[in-house]
Amino acid sequence: MKREFLFSGFGGQGLLFSGKVLAYKGLIEDKNVSWLPSYGPEMRGGTASCGVIISDEPVGAPIVLHPDVLVAMNLPSLDRYEPAVKPGGLILVDSSLIGRKVERTDVSVLYVPATRLADENGTSTLANMVLVGRLLAELGEYNEETVDTALQKCVSARHQDLLELNRKMMEIGKNYEE
Amino acid sequence: MTEKVLMKGNEAIAEAAIRAGCRHYFGYPITPQTEIAAYMAKRMPKIGGTFLQAESEIAAINMVYGVSAAGKRVMTSSSSPGISLKGEGLSYLAGADLPAVIVNAQRGGPGLGGIQPSQSDYFQATRGGGHGDYHMIVLAPASVQEMAELTIRGFELADEYRMTAMILADGTTGQMMEPVSFDFEVKEPPAKPWATTGTKMARPHNIVNSLYLVPEELEQGNLDRYARYELIKEKEAKAEMYLTDDAEIVIAAFGIAARVSRNAVDEARANGIKAGLIRPITVWPFPDKAFKSVLPHTKAVLSVELSMGQMIEDVLLAVNGQAPVTLVNRVGGMIPSPEQVYQAIVEAAKKGGN
Description:
The structure holds 2 protein chains of 2 kinds. Chain A has helices spanning 15-28, 41-44, 75-81, 114-120, 127-139, 144-154, 163-175, and strands at 2-10, 32-37, 47-55, 69-72, 90-94, 108-112. By secondary structure, chain A is an alpha/beta fold. By secondary structure, chain B is an alpha/beta fold. Chain B is 41% helix and 19% strand. Chain B has a 7-stranded mixed β-sheet with strand order 3-2-4-5-7-6-12, with helices on both faces. Classes of the chains: A alpha/beta, B alpha/beta. The interface between A and B is medium-sized, with 20 and 25 residues.
């Protein structure tokens, strides 16, 4: 099986980091993975995105053009990438930051007020991890052990104090129900 | 087996260089390869090495010349416009028969161009890059694992043949993260009796130089070098063959273009088209034999590139009129999509190769 993910939003929302946690989890589970950030002019405009591919087979092109899963953390990202999602795919929307609904009817949609939930529980800057928690739960891929190892690999030595908070945010996401 | 870690291609190059025994790195920042310098800046001071941000690309390549002349493994890295600046130094390294590893994480050009990936420095890399008759060994990684492996191989080849090895990467392969394992042997560098290490009053002076004013001597240097190049062409050309055994439509692509092409080949196969991929791992020497081996069943060749058609000239030489060769490309920092390549395969299959 092969799944392509696209995380998109403003620079600073931790999209690259959430993609990395997902990719590391794949690596720990012996999957083939790739992670590709945007680094071009669009980043200078304030939008950051990264594509993650997790696959049983070797990954060919690491570029995600038609994601199975889109995680949108701002309106421009939803506007831009909603049409690109594969039919039957999944869109996660941070509904505390994006006012509109998804227009497509051939995809599943999860509205998660991630920024509000994160804010209420300590820090709004970890809304990304709320979304990753919700995403993994939805896919039936929330494996506590590999999630935990992936987090330990991704949270830098300098920020070890934030490890517990990251964990907590993912759990809030996992347990969130609309 | 050592644990696999998730790393950016650029970081994997830097780590591999350190594992290859490189303790001297000189560079000047430029997107999209700055992670190499950043990694070296962090690591080199901890392992007794030198990281130096030079005042310019030209200064950096001349520092490489100095360290190499002293017999040590040394590396510099840059991206397209910066490599042009290093051109003079590359020629001097060749003229003095000095080993070194040079990384080019290519971006779109010409001029300052852009910062997105490109393969439009293929001519520059495979034909030498600076003035005079010379070549570099040019290695073209297509994955983060290969960024590591080919960097180590680059140091070995550079020492063995006393010439520069270039890692011809691009913005995408440099920026992407993939699992990488550093579980491989590194050969000890060979003895370098020519190095300027001090005579200790026990031997004649070694002189490292690229100035030969007597034409007969300069000619002989060129002839010797080209004799070595023939040996390298014979021994070191490498390509990965993917589903080429019965392929009628053969794609030629290296680096990121090969990754995209692989998807297109898979799709073509799923739709009953006998497509395959030849991925040059060395682009100089070019793997001519890989192409010759598929010619008996090949009806058409597609050269997939992030350039206006540079590698296609080597493909044409290798195919030598035995099959039509068509360019499939995007430029300016754009990457051909798997769909674009797949459509080109379908077109070629329809024409039956003619």
